Automatic annotation (TrEMBL):
Family per similarity comment: Belongs to the CobD/CbiB family.
Originating species: Natrinema salaciae
Tree of life domain: Archaea
UniProt gene name: cobD
Gene Ontology, cellular component aspect: plasma membrane
GO biological-process terms attached to the record: cobalamin biosynthetic process
Organismal lineage: Archaea, Methanobacteriati, Methanobacteriota, Stenosarchaea group, Halobacteria
Entry protein name: Probable cobalamin biosynthesis protein CobD
Pathway(s) the chain acts in: Cofactor biosynthesis; adenosylcobalamin biosynthesis
Pfam families: CobD_Cbib (PF03186)
Length: 325
């Protein structure tokens, strides 16, 4: 099953490199976003009740994409023996994103050299902040921060969830990847202090992203050939409001020896300067290599799970064999 997992991961990333993200109109994540839009309403005038509804939303909404993903893989398995693997690869492809992230980051960084208006327009695809007052260095900082953060929640989280279950059950692995993506989407749409409905979604995302954010930080440090960057990053990893996003962002800031700053919110590695053009270009390369490191970690996890599963099954097979003698 470890080889099957490797083949599926290879299929997913081949599709990402060849296609990038599908158009919004046909992207299942966008469809789920429409469901979240429907749920994002004042269910009650009482803030406490609104938070209670938010608990139900956080508990139930991500189960929708998880059920669809698992059902798709199960249905594909009945059509052809290879169907389950292909369907699982498609689910992993649709729940991860790398090429689009790197291209958009690279585009923003390049535009800061001669076309700040284009950079401000393009950075909206990466961050939700008002980009109109940002300088060239601040725009590059925003792009670099987003690249680091999205490595964790746009790739590492779903990839590791998939790899942990794929050797045991492809439908379960697909469901786990889709569920994690659903949790991330809920947080990105509802997880604001001004939205009581999204409090539970934000807390659930904090829990889900605890390990992926730190693994992404370690991957960035290794990709930058600076393993101690993640150690130095501990000083600022908890500065951002999120308990997780600061880890990959601060690690990348330390690895690049630059300051990453969201005005009035946080400053990471404050003694350094804002990223120059070359720093932004290097950030894209480092995040790309960190993605490769993350894939290696995921495959190693799948091998470990596969070996553990085989070891637990072997004694049972031996017992059955003895019983038939």
């Amino acid at each position: 099953m470890a080889l099957t997992t490797l083949a599926i991961v290879g299929l997913a990333f081949s599709l990402d490199l060849l296609i990038g993200e599908p158009p919004t109109a046909v992207h299942p994540v966008a469809w789920f976003g429409r469901l979240v839009d429907v749920l994002d309403r004042p269910w009650s005038d009482d803030e406490r009740r609104q938070r209670l509804v938010g608990v139900a939303v956080a508990a139930l909404a991500p189960l929708v994409p998880a059920a669809v993903a698992a059902g798709t893989v199960l249905a594909a398995a009945t059509v052809h023996p290879m169907g389950a693997g292909i369907a699982a690869g498609l689910v992993l492809f649709l729940t991860t994103s790398l090429r689009t992230l790197l291209e958009l980051t690279e585009d923003v960084v390049a535009a800061t050299e001669a076309d700040l208006e284009r950079a401000r327009e393009r950075v909206r695809g990466l961050v939700g902040r008002d980009a109109s007052p940002l300088s060239a260095g601040e725009l590059r900082s925003a792009a670099v921060e987003s690249a680091a953060e999205n490595l964790a929640d746009g790739l590492v989280a779903t990839l590791l969830a998939f790899a942990a279950l794929a050797p045991i059950s492809l439908p379960a692995a697909a469901a786990a990847a889709a569920w994690v993506k659903g949790v991330n989407t809920l947080d990105s749409m509802l997880g604001y202090p001004s939205k009581p409905l999204g409090t539970a979604s934000a807390r659930l995302d904090d829990l889900v992203m605890f390990l992926p954010a730190r693994i992404a930080a370690a991957a960035i440090a290794l990709a930058a050939v600076d393993p101690l960057a993640v150690v130095r990053a501990r000083r600022w990893a908890r500065v951002p409001p999120s308990p997780n996003s600061g880890w990959p962002m601060a690690t990348l800031a330390c690895a690049l020896a630059v300051r990453l700053e969201k005005p009035t919110v946080y400053v990471l590695n404050p003694d350094a300067e804002l990223p120059m053009l070359a720093d932004g270009e290097r950030a894209v390369a480092v995040v790309g290599r960190a993605a490769v490191v993350s894939v290696i970690v995921a495959v190693a996890l799948a091998v470990l799970v596969s070996g553990s599963a085989a070891a637990s099954i072997a004694p049972r097979i031996a017992e059955v064999s003895v019983g038939w003698r």
